[in-house]
Amino acid sequence: MKKSNAPGAPGGDEKPYSSDGAGAPARKINPDLTIAEIKHGVRPGDVYVRMRQPHSHIFRKVGPGHFVATPASDVPTSSWERGYRLLKKILVGRPLETAEEIHQRLNKVKSLAVFGSDAISSSAYATEAALIVLVAAGNGALGIVFYTSIAIAVMLSIIAFSYRQTVYAYPHGGGSYNVSRENLGTLPGLIAASALLIDYVLTVAVSIVAGSAAVISALLASGYAEQIEALEAAMPAFLNLNVVLSLFFIGLITLGNLRGIRESGTIFAIPTYLFIVSLSVMLLGGLFKAFTGTLHPVTPPPLLPIVEPLGAWLILRAFSAGAVAMSGTEAISNGVPAFQKPESHNAATTLTVMATLLGAFFLGVSFLATRMGLVPGQETIISQVALAVFGASLPYYIFQIATTGILVIAANTAFVDFPRLSSVLARDNFMPHQFLFRGDRLAFSTGIFALGGIAALLVIAFEGSVDSLIHLYAVGVFLAFTLSNSGMVVHWWKLRGPNWQTSLVINGVGASLSVITLAIVAVTKFALGAWIVIVLIPIITSLFLFVHTHYSRVAEQLRIVPTQLPPKKIDQLVVVPIDDVNYASLRAMAFARTISSDVVVLHISTNVERTEKAKEKMRAYAPDLKMIVVDSPLRAFVRPLLAYVDAVHSQHPNAFVTIVLPEFITAHWWESFLHNRTAARLRSAFERHPNVAVVLVPYLLER
Amino acid sequence: MKKSNAPGAPGGDEKPYSSDGAGAPARKINPDLTIAEIKHGVRPGDVYVRMRQPHSHIFRKVGPGHFVATPASDVPTSSWERGYRLLKKILVGRPLETAEEIHQRLNKVKSLAVFGSDAISSSAYATEAALIVLVAAGNGALGIVFYTSIAIAVMLSIIAFSYRQTVYAYPHGGGSYNVSRENLGTLPGLIAASALLIDYVLTVAVSIVAGSAAVISALLASGYAEQIEALEAAMPAFLNLNVVLSLFFIGLITLGNLRGIRESGTIFAIPTYLFIVSLSVMLLGGLFKAFTGTLHPVTPPPLLPIVEPLGAWLILRAFSAGAVAMSGTEAISNGVPAFQKPESHNAATTLTVMATLLGAFFLGVSFLATRMGLVPGQETIISQVALAVFGASLPYYIFQIATTGILVIAANTAFVDFPRLSSVLARDNFMPHQFLFRGDRLAFSTGIFALGGIAALLVIAFEGSVDSLIHLYAVGVFLAFTLSNSGMVVHWWKLRGPNWQTSLVINGVGASLSVITLAIVAVTKFALGAWIVIVLIPIITSLFLFVHTHYSRVAEQLRIVPTQLPPKKIDQLVVVPIDDVNYASLRAMAFARTISSDVVVLHISTNVERTEKAKEKMRAYAPDLKMIVVDSPLRAFVRPLLAYVDAVHSQHPNAFVTIVLPEFITAHWWESFLHNRTAARLRSAFERHPNVAVVLVPYLLER
Prior knowledge:
The structure is a homodimer.
Chain A: E1 59-63, E2 66-69, H1 79-92, H2 108-121, H3 126-134, H4 144-169, H5 176-184, H6 186-221, H7 225-234, H8 241-259, H9 265-291, H10 312-322, H11 331-334, H12 343-372, H13 381-390, H14 394-427, H15 445-461, H16 466-495, H17 500-525, H18 530-558, E3 572-578, H19 583-595, E4 599-605, H20 608-621, E5 626-631, H21 638-651, E6 656-665, H22 678-685, E7 692-700
Parallel strand pairs in A: 3-4, 3-6, 4-5, 6-7
Antiparallel strand pairs in A: 1-2
Helix pairs in contact in A: 2-9, 2-12, 2-14, 3-4, 3-10, 4-10, 4-12, 4-17, 5-6, 5-16, 6-8, 6-14, 6-15, 6-16, 6-18, 8-14, 8-15, 9-12, 9-13, 9-14, 10-17, 12-13, 13-14, 14-15, 16-17, 16-18
């Protein structure tokens, strides 16, 4: 093959770079882009052919030295990347410019759907959670659930009332982290934040698993029990239908949030209101049937053996289990700025409506379930109630669809709150700054991925069981309630505005009730799984503090102190390690000459003949450069080079050593196996040297 | 924390690098090492503390600009590395200097052990391989083995005779690759090389598996059958005791060869001569017993059902199976230079002795086995014979140990030849140059690792069964014989020295017999596994050619053409991308100023406030540098930078762009997760640009 097509072709112009001739002085390059002047800068035959269009398409000039990168700057270069981009576009949508962000305000109807679905949807599983505890005491004990439900509903109204205060006091968003940090200090704020993050993950896991359970209940009610069993038998041991469905839903919501659906309230309004309406109809129908004496379970509840006598412990445990109904109550206080004006007033009203609906639904379901003496089984309690009211008719299926819908939407609340709280924590340097990163659709993608991933792992680990997951749930909820309400107490105490005593009392009662409930929940659920959360909260809090310390130290080390500026220029020695003198090493030497007048060509010798040849070539082609030979009897390359640089530093402690190395870039990736990894090894060897930089001068192998 | 301990501490001297003061001109640095002048170059408190001793310990000056790196240059820097080095030293031994290589010559006694163990050890399994084929035709057919053995022994003597010719004609090493390439052309040479490499791998696998089988036979003879069964039941399904033992032996030999035991003939002499002596004693004892009529199998051979009538096909297959006895015959022709003078004569004598021993042993074992009508089973045939001769007495166990020993040593022959042939192929640019690399002990470590690894995989894939592996074996052996002998025929024809006709006839007969055997082996074993080798040989040969083409192209592209030298200096633009102006970015700017007068500071803007702050700081701290702002509406960083560099290239097609970027090096690796990977992403984005270099100016975070 003739050399004329190789990069080392005749005439400097076809070389990857060149000046007018060997040894000619370097030309000045204008770094500013002379838009519209240049048409086609690259001639055919040049190595570098990507840029065929004038760059005025790519950069719009907006001022001297100021350009805007147009979407044309964002064209993928490889077919791999093109495919990836296309897939991403289909799944997530076209990338949005920062300026395209919309701050949509939600009216009360939509905001109830966006912020209330989490709380309201709890009514779909809270009764069942309490019943499962009481099963141990036999059928007769199940009725207790109605009374624990009343206690929880009372609690709920007090907590909701206390959050109304927060909504007015913090119109810019009164999340537990904010309120606790501002009033109680950083540490309580971070504890609240850890509790909240754990809670959001559990909200996703529990809601999604409960939503999938609703689907499976509907399938069971339609007589698909055998098919489900056969399907599950065919799955790997760690999966079941509920896990598979849940993972599908989590994937769907993750994707939806990456698309940035978070504030499009309409999507959420449909299932939320469908659930509100159909549950209301169901409850009214059920109450009517109950009072006319025609309410009967479709399959008579099984007779339960009495394993444990009904005692205070069991009742407390049932109360703890049912208390998950209250999760999500704080969501509105986080989102006040998203409401239409007057924000606080609208938010407070929505909060009241939400709490009322939740309380009524929870009590209603508990009443009907205990009235019929229903026993939790593979079919959910709420499905059993609906079946008893509607029969296996269209309304029943609509109700099941609505239940699944609102539970999935409830998970979405966490997908709004988790990334937002993470980004706030990242902004405050308590979480990695990656959580501030906004993806193609302006969503905080890191937080969304993290939440989806952790929730998915949790669903798999807990085998898609609401019952197991729910034990972890309430600790975080009530810890956040406690800290937030205590913060509000301090707030009122410090502020002493009009009626501060009343407000203080309300939040004080809220805080006291929360802390009592927290204690009950922590104790009764400890062994069942709450210990995991109790262990995790201090760990996560410590991680927050660790991250904060790191970022503070970095900021301190990077801060410019005007009296301690770095020198304008540095004392530099350029080292060009060569094995052989060839076209690539001559290019590296040219680069070295360009950047410094202090250049040394270093030859690590493992073979005398090779060294003599290299010396001879140096005399012929680069007689101006000093050459140093270091014999390496152990045939090592990197270590003698390290030792040489060390020795230079021992002579000149302030010297900065720049190592210039030609790097072969093969035409195809698999060809790189035919070359040793010297460049990469050198780079990693010098990575931790504060005054050594490694420059790889690329040498593209054409073929 | 006060800033005084941070790198940005008062006084330039404690900075990672500095000059006498901001803006002072850079100082000249002497790259030569002024040995013995400097005592302690680094003051306490300096960031850079590794080099505390004068470097005269580390480099010995041998001339102007010429140093020798002493072992002190090779001190590990981290505790990880210290541990790794220690482990390596324990396993492989202290590193050897290149000058320490010894070229030991072997006397005939040792060379028979080094080069002959492969061939001689075949007698331990060849008879069995043939018997297994004949089992299908019932007990009566087993006697045929003796006659096929005679045929093979005749073949062996002819091939050995023909190789004696090669030994005289190629005193510098007449491996099949050399002989074929020189006389028949590159392609036949490469085909021979592929066949040989495959053969070496199979030699290791077959010998080691047979050696392990000898250990297990001894255990079975001692009554450990139950224990072995229990042990195997406890192993994962893909393992059995034979596989585990084989992997252990392969690991041992690999390690031994990395230590560089290859020429220490004494180690090999012991098991080889122990085998020769004990097998001779056993055969003599067996013959005596046979003729006195006292030779009886310990357990009477089972009665075999006749599955297939005895026909020509079965006999040919038995012949093919037994032909593996001839593997290793060519080893001496490879190793002529290792013999004492006169090399060729000594090698030829050794070859004759080896072939005679092998032939006698093979015939003797076949005779005794057929005489007793032994049937192959879990216990090897040779073990059954020895048991019949010696009984379960000490001589039997010595014999089993010797068998295992020589089989393991036989595998070692391949560990000598495979790396040597690979290094020759790498030197000739047919294999990756990594195979030329010599490890700490001067052994070709890449080849040793490759051979050990592939052989281990093969043993696992074939479940440690000699019977399955052996089907792959003979094709490569006879292909190499054929090519080598054909090459010799051409050699004599061209050379026409004295008695060339005789030599030509001998090699011609050898070639003819080899090609006939090759055809028989390929056809009879095709479906049993030989097809794998028949498919692999052209694939490997193509890979050789592909590698050769690549290296030739690279060499062509790197060759210096004196009339087409690269320019002495290049047209360079230095781009410093900054996000914020801080101490680290000011250092990067200082670096950029030092290496060029054409510096542009590029700020990719995603946030207007941030940009304004950066502009302001630039005015304050680096007013001499041109700043360009590129707005990135899609919040991308790398792509607009790529596009900017493209645009610069479209204006100045010959410009070389150097991107200078500060890189944070965190104090602990896990802290790096708290920083984004901009530097790494940038490096990979620009990797394939021929005229862009990315310089990462390290900024070490102290804490």
